[in-house]
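REQUEST ID: PR-0412
SUBMITTED BY: lab tech R.K.
PRIORITY: routine
TASK: structure prediction, single protein chain
INPUT:
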Amino acid sequence: MPAPRTTESDHNEVMTFAHVRAAEKVADEQRAALAAKTVAEYSRDAAECSALLDMLGLDVADLR
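STATUS: complete
OUTPUT:
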């Protein structure tokens, strides 16, 4: 059985999808960093900040 033929359009679709996924990952990282910064600004102390970040599922080590 011959392999399906791929066209330039198929390749462009895959590249577009990859670019969209990469852009979404960057945007998600930016939102997480902003959320962590906001939590840090409003926390009373390090323990509260850590607890709130845990509740949000944010790990400071993952943020840039």
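NOTES: Residues 32 and 58 are 7 Å apart (CA to CA).
REVIEWED BY: pending
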